[in-house]
Amino acid sequence: MTYVVTDNCIMCKYTDCVEVCPVDCFYEGENTLVIHPDECIDCGVCEPECPADAIRPDTEPDMESWVEFNRKYSEQWPVITRKKDPLPGYEAMDGVAGKLEKYFSPNPGEGD
Asked: Which of 8, 49, 78, 99 could be cross-linked to 16 through a Cys-Cys bond (beta carbons 3.0 to 4.6 Å apart)?
């Protein structure tokens, strides 16, 4: 099992999760985070830390595409280990449907 970041992180990018990760497996894009599925040790401490409920275990239905999404971008983006402020307007974007299609940016973030 592994944990993955899903589309509710897009345009919010809370980083509470990265501070509790014992193996530093979060990677930062311009407007979202991902978890490297091969580095995640399945401890689950990140999941309850996410205010947007964007972190899910891969054992839930229909998570295969999110595992591959997280894998792809974790290999392209810089690691992030420190908490940062969420993106401007994050409150309004929390829970918005269709964020992957409408708002996702493949550009890397700043990382640490």
From this structure: 49
